[in-house]
Amino acid sequence: MGLLDILLGRTKPAAPDLDQLFGLPSAAVTLEAAAGFRPTGSGAVCFATVEGAAFTQTHREVQALLDADAEREGRPVELSVDDYGYSWLVSRRSPDGLPDLVNDLHAVNSAMEVNGFGPQLLCSLAGFEDTGSAQGRRLALVYLYKRGTFYPFAPLSGAAERRDGALELRVRAALADDLRMEQDLSRWFPLWGAPGL
Predict the structure, then answer these.
(1) What DSSP state is assigned to residue 15?
(2) Helix (H) or strand (E) holding 124
(3) Are 24 and 32 in contact (CB under 8 A)?
(4) Helical (H) or strand (E) element with 79
(5) What is the pTM of this model?
(6) Under 8 Å CB-to-CB from 169, ≥6 apart: which residues?
(7) In what order do the strands lie in the sheet with 149-153?
(8) Cβ–Cβ contacts within 10 Å for residue 192, how many?
(9) How far apart are CA 197 and CA 141, in angstroms?
(10) Closest of 36, 140, 11 to residue 88, by C-alpha
(11) CA-to-CA distance for 192 and 196, rounded, in angstroms?
C-alpha cells in the first residue's frame, strides 16, 4: 500500500486464507455447546459461472476428484445453479464427517484458485441444525472467500426470506475465539435457498 492509498483512505483487501476453513471442526464443538447446533454433513462452494474450455475443464477435474472420494460413502457431489445464475458445488457427508466436508470445500476452493479462477469464488458454507428444537432450525457458517472471514446465516423456518438476527449475533459471539468472524454486518449476505443449507 502506497502513500497515496493511505492519504485517500484506501485499504488493501485481505488476501484469502483458505486454511481458515480448517477451523470449522473445532468451531462446531463450540457451536454445539453454546447453541445446540450440530453439523448436517452438507456444504457448498458458490462461484460465478464462467464460459470457456479452461473453466469447464477445471470444473470437471474438481468434480471428478470429489466424486472419487465421495463415492465411497455413496454421496456424489452435485452441481446446481441458483436463481441468480451462480453455480454451487454441493458436497454431502455424514453429519459426523465435518472434517471430510471441510477437505472437500478446501479442495474446490484451492483447485479454482490454482487454475486462475479465484476471482470467481464467492463463498463456501457448512450447514448446521438445531437437534434439540422441534422447529428444525437451520444455520450456515459462511466463509467469504475474498475477505477470509466467516459469518453465521440463520434463516427462519417457515418464514419467507426472514432471518434470525439475534441467533446470528449469539453465534458470532460464541465463535469469536474459534473463527475469524466478519465484523462488518453489511457483508452478512442472505443466502436464500442456498444448496447445502
Answers:
(1) P
(2) strand 121-130
(3) no
(4) strand 78-81
(5) 0.85
(6) none
(7) 78-81, 86-92, 37-48, 121-130, 138-144, 149-153
(8) 15
(9) 10
(10) 140
(11) 11
Extents of the domains making up the chain? 20-180
Q: What angle do CA 156, 159, 162 make, to 5 degrees?
A: 60
User: How far apart are alpha carbons 47 and 61 in whole angstroms?
Assistant: 16
Closest alpha carbon to 189 in 146, 141, 153 = 153
φ and ψ at 67, to 5 degrees? -65, -40
Q: Is 133 exposed, middle or buried (0-12, 13-18, 19+ CB in 10 A)?
A: exposed
Rounded to whole angstroms, how far apart are CA atoms 101 and 24?
Answer: 10
181 vs 47, 62, 133, CA distance in Å? 21, 28, 25
- Cα three-residue angle 154-160-165, rounded to 5 degrees: 30
DSSP-derived secondary structure letter, 18: G
| Cell (9 digits) for 90 | 454441493
Q: Using CA atoms, how far apart are residues 31 and 45, in angstroms rounded to an integer? A: 21
Residue with cell 465411497: 72
- List per-residue pLDDT tens for the chain, 197 residues long: 555 565 566 565 556 788 899 999 999 999 999 999 999 999 999 998 777 777 777 777 777 777 776 554 556 678 888 888 898 989 999 999 999 999 999 988 998 888 888 888 999 999 999 977 666 789 999 999 999 999 999 998 776 789 999 999 999 999 999 999 999 999 999 999 888 78
